[in-house]
Structures are given as C-alpha cells and as structure tokens.
Amino acid sequence: MYMNRSLYLLFSLILFSTVAFAQITAPDADGNAFTQYPEFSETDNIFVFCSADTLAQNGSLTVTTTLSGTKTFLWEKYNEQTASFEFYSQEIIDAESNEITNLADGCYRATVTSGTTTDVFRAWVFNNWILADAEVVDSNCETFRLSGSFKSAKLTYYDLSSNAEVELQKTINIEWYEGDTRWSTNLNFQVFDPPTEDTEYTLQVFDQFGCEGISDVLYESMITEAGFTADPVEGEAPLTVTFTNTSENGTPGYYEWFFYRDIDEIKREAERGGEVDSIMLIAYDDAPVYTFENSGSYMVKLVSKHITESFTCVDTFTFENYFVADTSFIVAANVFTPNTGDPINDDFKIKFWSMKSLEITIVNRWGRTVHHWQSGDIMDPENARVESVWDGRIGGRYASPGVYYWNAYGVGRDGRTQSKRGFVHLFRGRD
Known about the structure:
This protein is mostly beta strands and 431 residues long. 6% of the residues lie in helices and 53% in strands.
C-alpha cells in the first residue's frame, strides 16, 4: 500500500516520541520499529539509519542512566553464530550517558553498573540502503519506456531465545518525476507522445523509514514537431509570403515545403476525371520566401524530420487557412483637378489589383488619343495598386478642362483578361 513520505516522517516522529524516555536511544536514527520475536517474550527497539552505500556504518546508540557516581558502561554485540552476546566496548566514567558510534548491523546490549546496581538495555541497529537505477529503453518515433530497478538492504534480526531469523519488512515505494511533476508509481512504464526536447527523468525509490535511492536518466529526444507562421496570408497577386519555421527539434536542411496548386483549379481537373497532380512545388528550405504569382487559394504543408543513425522521425503541419492571392480588378476615379493651386488630386489615378500587365489609353471627346500608359510586368503589389497614369498634360501643356474617356486593358494574375472603360472630368484653375 502506498503511503506518502511525509506520513512516514510523521509516523517516525510519533514512534520516537513513544520512546523518548527509554534508557537506550538513537537520536540520529532516520526511522524506528519494534521487534516481533517469535519466542522471546520482550520487545526491543529497532533503530534504522539511512545509508548512501552498502558499506556505510552510520548507526549510533546512547544509553542514559539515573545512577549516580562513577559507572561502568559495558557494551556487547549479539553474535548470531554463537547465539550469545560478546564484548564490544567498555568505559568507566562519571557521566549520565554513554554513546557508541559507527555501528554495524546488529543487536547491542548496554550494561550500566554503579556499585551493586546494574541496569541492562538492548536495541537493534540497521544501516538501511536503497540503490536505484534508471534507464531509457525501446525509444522510437512513437514512444519510449522508462525502466527502473533497485536493490535494498535486507534487515534481519534474531529471536534472542531461539536464534530464529526474522526479517524486518519494508514497504517499498516507486515514483518517477520530470522536474516536480510525478509521472508514475510503476517501476517500468511506457511514455507515449514523447517530448521534442531532451528531458531528464528521476527515479525515486523509498521506504517507510525515509531511506531512498535516486537515479536520473536523460531521454535524448528524436521527436520533431512541425509548425510555421506566415505573413501575409492574403493580398494582391503576386503575393509574396515570408514563412517562419517554428518546428521543434527538426534537423536543419531536411525540411520539405509542399506548395499546392489553386484549390479551384484542382477541383476543376478532378471533375474532368483522371489523375490530378495537386502539388505545384516542393521546396527544400528551412524558412522560404515564396511568391504566389497568380490569383487563387493555395494550401501549404511543412514536413519536419529529425534524423538519427537509427531512425528518421517525421511530423507534418498544414496551415489551417488558405493563402489567398486575390482576383484581378481595375477601377478609376471620375474626377481629377490638375493645377488648381494645391497638390491634392492632381493626377488621374487607376487602382488595380492582382494585375500582371496593364495598358491605359485616354482619348478626348472626338476620339483622339491624348495619353498612353502601360506596364508589362507588375511585380510590386504594395506600390502597384494605385498608379498615376496621367498628369493632365498633352504635349507638355495642360489639357483643356472637360470630359475625357479611358480604356484599360490587361491580364490579371488569375489569367483573366481585364478590359474596362470609363470617363473622367478634368477640372483646373487658370494658367
């Protein structure tokens, strides 16, 4: 049954408090128990000392007496081979207590003599240790296993009447931690959805006396998680998008970017039947900048890889929205006012969107061409959305006020031919 370590410590304190007035004590002990001799009618204290290794001798005992004057403190240790107590140490002093330290496992008997008065006390000492070992096994792209093992001191005492061997039972508890987070109480367990970064796990094995063994193990991640952000996600064609790779634990130089064709174009081909190749381009780049030349709605997927000698782990990320390069259009104002004494609205401007090429012809009311403007390869959408195509001059001189007509012709990034016409009123002040 699992018990929290803080409860064990509280349990130990309670036990210590019950023997606070005993004549033989172990103030430095980490835990306490009592013998359960099969035949011997008395009960002795068992003092447990936690040790870091199998050879440590941390035990200590103190005998305290109310006898006055000079006293003989005789210490003996039980020998299970001969089933008898044998001399361990002796000291004759005028003191109320006497301590022995660096004790090995066993039962110690203290005989305190003053004159004709003798007091005898016993206690068992155990140096208790737990050695834990943790390792990562069966690691692959999907999971890994934390495997633990431990060894613990066997605490054995003997019936003082029959010399029968008795084992002091220990409750062993297992805890796995990642930092302060407890993961499991099983010695071996499987970890699914492994982390994308190297992670240290701690195996802690402890008993009711507060003795523990700790082992740390480093999981070296082979997992990658693909991801990216992009800006902008929509706008005029040509639409240039900067992709920022946010993938975790990917191997540089092994990223694959899949740029798919316009979704409407894919659907049209699918409706006609036959095999459809939906991929427009595969780019091998850590963080590309890509231009969608034509209008449409495009999907982009990133494949991230983490490559080791044994495995190539792969993860994919598809952007949740389409990248939209808008369809083309042309529109123009119907009034402009060159040379009116202010710089406002001095030029006749055409506003257009997602155009690849554009040609503007302006004629007067009699059909005579007064101005011509064209651009054969519009590549800068930020500066090409509005163009000043006429400053209101004909042959270097300001044109007469009145109504003029414009014809626009061009090819959009969506492949469509755009043809628009309209009129514009020219107003101006005196020359």
